[in-house]
Amino acid sequence: MANPTTTAFDEMRTGSGDVRPLYEACDQWLRGVTQAQLSQKSKEAELLFRRVGITFNVYGEDAGAERLIPFDVIPRILSAGEWQRLSDGAIQRVRALNLFLHDLYHKQEIIKAGIVPASILANSQYRPEMQGVDVPGGIYAHIAGIDIVRTAEDTFYVLEDNLRTPSGVSYMLEDRKMMMRLFPELFRRYSVAPVEHYPQVLLNNLRAVAPDGVRNPTVVLLTPGAYNSAYFEHAFLAQQMGIELVEGQDLFVRDNYVYMRTTEGPKQVDVIYRRIDDDFLDPLAFRPDSMLGVPGLVSVYRSGNVTLANAIGTGVADDKSTYIYVPEMIRFYLGEEPILSNVPTYKLGEKDDFAYVLDHLPELVVKEVQGSGGYGMLVGPTASKQQILDFREQILANPSNYIAQPTLALSTCPTLVEQGIAPRHVDLRPFVLSGKTVTLVPGALCRVALREGSLVVNSSQGGGTKDTWVLQC
Q: What are the Circularly permuted ATP-grasp type domain coordinates in residue numbering (predicted)?
């Protein structure tokens, strides 16, 4: 495969260097500002983000070490038509995944049909405790982040599905506020769809999935606490929705209901937007050493007296080994052809795929099936011989723990770097909200690989973010 850094689709310029129509107004604006001015605005953004506290913790570094996610001041622009296709495809995908989760925890028709193998029940993210449990509206993934990459002008692929506790929406919202503050003159050149109503849409969806009979539900956001890498987002979203941010110690179970401790006494909780992984939710049901969760919560949940968003057991659907079957899920449950394609994927637990991948490691991207944040992966074309040899040993020790994909030529967008404005690789994570309806706010988290030639956009690996502009016409 050709070097992805030289064959990537440039979203701003054609192969001959001409500016694409979508970026003409942005290009004119850029011609009217100097790099020094842009750099100054970038420094202002960093200062403002630091004052607000938009930082994330990096696991494995010194305790309490925090970083700002770098913010790029040049927006990524998508046409209304491009967004419509991405939106339709992401909604279709989440609808199918919710139907799959309901089926998996009930009749398992897709397994009986031979489309998904029964071995999926051995996945560590499959939760037998959820078997036969009916969740409100049949919705398991109330908030889903679908990672999408572009390889050509009209070619988009889904890279992965995030259904457990997807993060990053706070950066979508804060990046937009920052751009409007720093560059109001650029907004006057475009008709950009708003995103600031996301917290209200999210709250409405959470209220819509309250247990039956609850007319004025109390919604809370459950966080692991201030040392979690996404704590800023937890606090931000709770504040924006006007709901309480709670930790496990703030909640308790009594008479098979969940209550929140308040200065006015116990208050019943009906919906919990939880940002804690399954294993830590309830020490009586999962890890007994967990100090983050609420003893007895799973029993209340199984009884239907509280709603958890996202549902327990959603992780089995965003495992990278399950990802392979999503196009067939769409056909099976919806009777439709997938709008967005998967990236071709090799499953190393299968003999032929395993042999091919071992022979082509320098050409492929290899990922742990439950990995995230850019950890536990090998980018073959940019890896050293020693890194490839070391990763090969990891694969040999546990082949079924990995999948592999071609090294995609991720599209590039203009980005402010030390040398000036240069193309850098990007991806996109729109957030799909499921309640009475399935919707997307017209915007997304755009992550950018700031290092030249890098294809890894994750913030934990040095990536930054951009504001995503979806045009209204």
A: 75-449
